[in-house]
Amino acid sequence: MPRLLRTLPPLAALAAVLYLMIPAPEAGAQILRGHDTSAPVEFSADRIEVQDRADRVVVGGNVQVEQAGLHLTSARLTVAYHNSNGLEIDRLDASGGVTVTRGDERASGDVAIYDLNRKLITLIGNVALNQGANRLTGGRLVIDLASGRTTVDGAGTTKAPGATTTANGRVSGTFKVRQANGDQGAK
Q1: Domain of 122?
Q2: How many CB atoms lie within 10 A of CB 41?
């Protein structure tokens, strides 16, 4: 063990090791950063119900949503909108096996709320985040599309109807470690 890590308290040494394992931002460490939330939202499903007086659309059965390369799938979706010189979507609420993907980035959970105005996607219940070989699991995941910052909580501070949380209320993860040139594994 390097001398610096031997002189640090165990928790600080662990934090230092974890910090060194985080890839640089240009390596894709920031999830869905720069996504165009103003791009058109396209969706398809088995059925649709327009609730015009409530400024809401309820979509059900094999729901698929696409926006500028971001894909969302779920069993059900509620679209909240407002009508000011044309319809403008404010929020998407998805439930039932929700998956959000873009490229090799994948987030999943029981329930998702995509707030287009605040540029936030929140997944609640049995969340998993995969980016290449890296994986995090927990109870709640918040993706800030403007900054690319992603936060994972163990059990979440709120529980959506029908959502479950992790049994122990903790976040767990696996991170790929960059291999040094010529390092072919343990000898």
Answers
A1: 42-174
A2: 18
